[in-house]
Design brief:
Length: 367
């Protein structure tokens, strides 16, 4: 009888252990689901980026014999087909039939390629908005975070860089954005070593507002920062602008473009107006898609103006419960800067802006 009792007791405690494990598992699933669906767009995106970057390099399978446009032979020599996920835009039936055939489709789709187009600048111009808007396009795959290869991590080598890229199918465009490339002296020659056919996109914004936006970002990380005017002026009595301050220097677009034009012809550049990206995102996206040789998929039906955010946001994508606005670090309120300092900066930038309009063949209307 004691033996039977003991067995029954053991059975019960085993059942209890299993039950408690199952309930812990479901609680975790519930918590995860809650955070997944209630989180901010940027947080989700950050998770995806971190996961993408932490994912170990896949083992090499088949050598990729396919050639791809816009790439240099040396840079391409090591291309391989590699395991990847089924492409998002692939129809469910195609995915199913591939899986039903027992073919390990997820192991043969996609190739990591060098970007054919890069958003090279400018910092605080609206580069994140542009990249996120482009990512809606089924023929664009982009790295979420900024790789900083051509400025900070060049010594890691081209293969390191290519490994950061998402997998693409033939016909899809690989992209990345790192706004500091535009002001990095060595970047043009380095990009050209990778591929001189690379398309270059520069989102430009009134250099005065851009400088204030840049300052606002630094201030948010370092509240003890000196005032904007004390950093912008070399000397408060003479009113001479301090061009060594990066927030000022970045706005000398003509000077930076000159450096790039030593390696790339003007036809390789598209200058996107940061202002119009806010006032008419669909119009500006039309130009970008044309430049990239893409079908005009991203259009006004994808955007709505969010009154609370004060910026255009993406409408609820299919299968998502929420519309997507950029995170809090995009569209921050700017501190009030004395009007005479802003005027001084406007006067300072005017000749550089005019030179830039001439060089780019576009009048951005900042003056
Ligand atoms: N749709 C939308 N939503 C939010 N913000 C938008 C959008 N379109 C353009 N912008 C402007 O983008 C500015 C930030 O530029 P970047 O993304 O290039 O900044 S960064 O260099 O990557 O830090 C950011 O600058 P601040 O307003 O100064 O924060 C915005 O003005």
């Amino acid at each position: 009888e004691r033996l039977v009792d003991l067995r029954a007791h053991r059975h019960r405690s085993l059942e209890e252990t299993v039950l408690s494990k199952v309930s812990v598992f479901f609680t975790m699933v519930l918590i995860f689901t809650y955070f997944f669906y209630s989180s901010d767009y940027d947080i989700l995106d950050d998770h995806r980026r971190v996961l993408d970057e932490l994912r170990p390099s896949p083992p090499r399978l088949l050598p990729d014999a396919r050639s791809h446009r816009n790439r240099t032979a040396s840079a391409d020599a090591e291309q391989v087909d590699a395991p990847g996920q089924l492409p998002q835009h692939m129809s469910d039936s195609a995915k199913e039939s591939a899986q039903n055939n027992g073919i390990p489709v997820s192991n043969t789709f996609g190739t990591k390629r060098f970007p054919q187009a890069i958003i090279i600048g400018v910092k605080k111009g609206g580069t994140r908005a542009l990249l996120e808007f482009l990512r809606i396009h089924p023929d664009v795959r982009a790295v979420g975070s900024e790789p900083h290869f051509f400025d900070r991590f060049y010594d890691r080598g081209l293969e390191w860089y290519r490994n950061l890229m998402p997998r693409t199918l033939d016909g899809q465009i690989t992209m990345e954005k790192t706004p500091s490339y535009f002001v990095t002296k060595e970047a043009p020659s380095r990009v050209c070593i990778m591929n001189c056919q690379t398309k270059l996109i520069v989102v430009v914004r009134d250099p005065v507002t851009r400088a204030v936006s840049d300052y606002t970002q630094t201030l948010s990380k370092n509240p003890g920062l000196p005032s904007f005017q004390s950093l912008a002026l070399k000397n408060s009595t003479t009113g001479v602008i301090d061009t060594t301050w990066s927030a000022v220097r970045i706005g000398l677009y003509a000077k930076h473009l000159e450096n790039w034009l030593q390696y790339f012809p003007l036809s390789h550049f598209l200058f996107v107006s940061g202002e119009r990206l806010v006032s008419d995102p669909a119009g500006e996206m039309g130009r970008v898609q044309d430049f990239l040789g893409l079908k005009r998929v991203v259009s006004d039906k994808h955007f709505y103006f969010n009154q609370t955010k004060g910026f255009p946001c993406l409408k609820k994508p299919e299968g998502s419960s929420r519309p997507r606005c950029l995170g809090k670090s995009k569209g921050r309120p700017h501190p009030q800067i004395p009007s005479e300092i802003l005027q001084r900066l406007r006067d300072f930038y005017r000749p550089f802006n005019h030179l830039f309009y001439q060089m780019s063949g576009q009048d951005f209307g900042w003056d």
